[in-house]
Design a protein that fits this description.
InterPro entries: F-box-assoc_dom_typ1, F-box-assoc_interact_dom, F-box_dom, SCF_F-box_component
CATH topology of the largest domain: Neuraminidase
Helix content: under 10%
Structural class: mainly beta
Oligomer: single chain
Strand content: 35-45%
Organism: Carya illinoinensis
Pfam families: F-box, FBA_1
CATH class of the largest domain: Mainly Beta
Number of domains: 2
Number of helices: 4
Protein name: F-box domain-containing protein
Number of strands: 25
Domain F-box: 1-50
């Protein structure tokens, strides 16, 4: 009796309905399934059709890198994974610089080698040298995002070189499709970012920092990925004690410090300055460093020291906290990142 197989289109339709974790395991079933699941077209279709992308927190631990599902209770051991990083060097920690569609932009702390990595599949890609000489006094800005106008991912590396207050500038952008770096024109104002990793939102990467001018000097600098140009995303300069700029739930958000409490403000309509509105007010005892939004419109954050993971409800009440060993990094480096599970390959542009 002859064996019967399901038509390939039926198999693909079944695979598209499965979670990423299962698909990664099923690559070992057969060469046929490996070929199907490794197809970039299936990866794109699966990512677009997934109704609920699983968010995971990526963070350095004393043993390497850990990953935690942010919607699971912090005490759920099954939600925590130790990850193998194929490009990690034993004597150098990793700098997590951004994520987009399940791909993570990372470097070693010496700012020499840069990688795009999918933690869900383990695939990675080393980027060519951007030609920026590392220096301990350099101040860096990084960005990574998707340019929908050309179906491509782009990487940004910017260095402000000493001396201050009139530093030198080197800016580079790389398209994953052509694998080449090209120069970025300097922004109009000399700018220093408070965080090296930019916040991706609305097709642009954003940094919060200061410009060299008298009086209030806090500004939001944006880089449009399609036009490959800088713009300043605020009409007025701010004078605020402490702030942090992040993408939370698809919104550009600011953390502001008022007296003993911190407030989370979000841009309700991207690009509309008057749409900024308060979303949370949080007890200042934790000095939260926001990471992402979880189910139920809850905020997931670390405290200022990075050793306590907290979850706050929409009223700003801390509903869960857990001592969490997130290794801290020196200034200008990012200790953690959030990514979604996907099959998208960092090598996709090299396969066509």
């Amino acid at each position: 009796m002859s064996r019967k197989f399901l038509p390939e289109e039926v198999v693909v339709e079944i695979l598209l309905r499965l979670p990423v974790k299962s698909l990664v395991r099923f690559r070992c079933v057969s060469k046929r399934w490996l070929s199907l699941i490794s197809d970039p077209r299936l990866a794109k279709s699966q990512f677009k059709r997934a109704a609920d992308h699983i968010q995971r927190l990526l963070f350095p631990t004393p043993f390497g890198l850990g990953s935690l599902e942010v919607d699971a209770p912090f005490g759920d051991g099954s939600a925590l994974r130790e990850l193998f990083v194929p490009f990690k060097q034993p004597d150098l920690r990793l700098n997590l610089l951004g994520s987009c569609d399940g791909l993570v932009f990372a470097s070693h702390y010496d700012h020499k080698d840069f990688y795009i990595w999918n933690p869900s599949t383990g695939e990675h890609r080393k980027l060519p040298d951007p030609g920026i000489s590392p220096h301990p006094d350099n101040e860096y800005m990084y960005g990574f995002g998707y340019d929908s106008s050309i179906d491509d991912y782009k990487v940004i590396v910017i260095a402000f070189l000493p001396p201050r207050p009139c530093p030198g500038y080197v800016g580079k952008i790389l398209s994953l499709k052509n694998d080449l770096w090209k120069s970025i024109k300097k922004p109009d104002n000399v700018f220093t970012s408070f965080r090296s990793a930019g916040a991706l939102c609305g097709g642009a990467v954003h940094w919060l920092g200061g410009v060299f001018r008298p009086g209030p000097n806090l500004a939001i600098l944006a880089f449009d990925l399609a036009e490959e140009k800088f713009r300043q995303d605020n009409e007025d300069y701010y004078d605020i004690a402490y702030t942090c700029l992040v993408n939370l739930g698809g919104r550009l958000c600011l953390i502001l410090l008022w007296d003993a409490d911190e407030e989370l403000w979000g841009m309700m309509e991207y690009g509309v300055q008057k749409s900024w509105a308060r979303m949370f007010r949080i007890d200042g005892d934790y000095s939260p460093q926001p990471l992402c939004m979880a189910r139920g419109n809850q905020l997931v954050a670390t405290n200022d020291d990075g050793n306590v993971l907290i979850r706050a409800n929409p009223e700003g009440k801390i509903v869960e906290s857990c001592v969490f060993c997130i290794e801290q990094s020196p200034n200008w480096h990012e200790p953690s990142a959030v990514f979604v599970e996907s099959l998208l390959s960092p090598l996709f542009a090299l396969e066509f």
